[in-house]
Write a structure and sequence with these properties.
Number of strands: 0
Order of helices and strands: HHH
Number of helices: 3
Structural class: mainly alpha
Distance between the termini: 112 Å
Shape: elongated
């Protein structure tokens, strides 16, 4: 029974909306076709963009004041970490090259020591 009353209610609502739209459409078309409506719509869009920017700035300040790392902080840390990783990679390559040189030098030294011992 409640299902039937919901269906009746939704049908009545649809009918009322259709009636409203059929009577209001010509008047709304006239309003939308005016230059003032376009200007108002443009101004409203500009205001929404400005409000969005203000909201983002407020959130950024709130995060900074809470001493929580924000996006800019994370990006800065990422750059520093990447630089440090590059430097460590260069140091590792140098150490590996020096270890290879040392091993080669020891082999040569052992070879000359055995040649002198004979």
């Amino acid at each position: 029974m409640s299902e039937e009353s919901r269906t009746n209610g939704s049908q009545q609502f649809r009918k009322m909306m259709d009636d409203f739209l059929s009577t209001a459409t010509p008047a709304l078309d006239e309003v939308v076709n005016t230059k003032a409506f376009g200007e108002m719509l443009g101004q409203a869009a500009g205001n929404l963009v400005a409000l969005s920017r203000i909201g983002n700035d407020v959130m950024d300040l709130a995060v900074r004041n809470a001493r929580v790392a924000g996006r800019a902080d994370v990006v800065s840390l990422h750059r520093q970490l990447a630089r440090n990783e590059d430097k460590l990679e260069a140091v590792l390559e140098t150490v590996e090259r020096l270890e290879d040189d040392l091993a080669e030098e020891r082999r040569r030294h052992q070879g000359s020591a055995t040649d002198q011992g004979e």
